[in-house]
Amino acid sequence: MDINAILNNADHSVLVVTPGIHEDVVVAVPHHAPSGASKLPCKEHPEADENAGFLGYYISRLLNCRSVIACNYFIDPNKNKDTDYCRLLLSLKPKILLEIHGHGGRSANFDIEISSGSHKRNRWSMELANRLGAKLQTSPQLKNYTISGNFNDIYFKATRTFTITTDEWLAFHIELPNSIRKSQIEYKAFCESLSEIIKDMLGLLEPKFS
C-alpha cells in the first residue's frame, strides 16, 4: 500500500488503516483530503481538513501505533457510533485516541485548540495543551502559535462528536490551522513535539486505566 499516493488522491473515498505495535494509542483523522481539495463529497460535513491525514499518519509512525484515516469521505464518520470509522475504532479498543482536525481560522479562538469533549475531562486537554505549548516555545517554526486546551475558552469543543465524548477511551480532539497542516517543515515539527509529549504523558495517564 502506497500511503502517500492514497493520501494525495482527491478522487476516491477510502478508509485507511495502518498497523502499529503499540495498541493503547490510535491516531485518527476523519476529514482528510489532500492540499487543494477543500471540499468533501459529504453534505453533513463538506469542509475538508486539508493534509490532516499526513499529520495523523506521521504521528502514528512516531508512536508506532495504528492510524485510521478517512480520505475524501462521503459521510461524516466521527459523529455516530454506527459508522464504519467508529466501529473500526471501537474494535481496536485503544486507551487513548488522538483525532487530528483542521480549521480555517475564522472561528477558532486559538491557533491550536485541544478538547477532550467535556468539562469533566478538561484536566486532560489542559495538561496536553500546556505541555505542548511549552514545547512549541522551543521551536523557531511554531513558537508564535497560540494554543489552549481549556474547555471554557476554545471554540472547537467537539461536544457532539461520538469519538471524543465516548467513555470507551480518553480522546484528544486537536484542531490545527492551515499554516501548520500545509507546511511540511511545520507539521513535522508539530507532530514530533506532540509525539514526545504523548510518550511522556502515557505514564501520567496510566492510573486512569488501571
Provide a descriptive summary of the structure in words.
The structure is a single chain. By secondary structure, this protein is of the alpha/beta class. It has one domain: Aminopeptidase, CATH 3.40.630. Helices cover 36% and strands 23% of the residues. It is built from seven helices and eight strands; from the N terminus they run H-E-E-E-H-E-H-E-E-H-E-H-E-H-H. It has helices at 3-7, 52-63, 84-92, 122-136, 162-165, 178-181, 184-209, and strands at 14-18, 22-33, 49-50, 65-71, 96-103, 112-115, 147-148, 170-177. Strands 1, 2, 3, 4, 5, 6, 7 and 8 form an eight-stranded mixed sheet that branches. Strand 6 (112-115), helix 4 (122-136) and strand 7 form a beta-alpha-beta unit. The longest helix is centred in the C-terminal third of the chain and has 26 residues, at 184-209. The N and C termini lie far apart (36 Å). The mean pLDDT is 95.
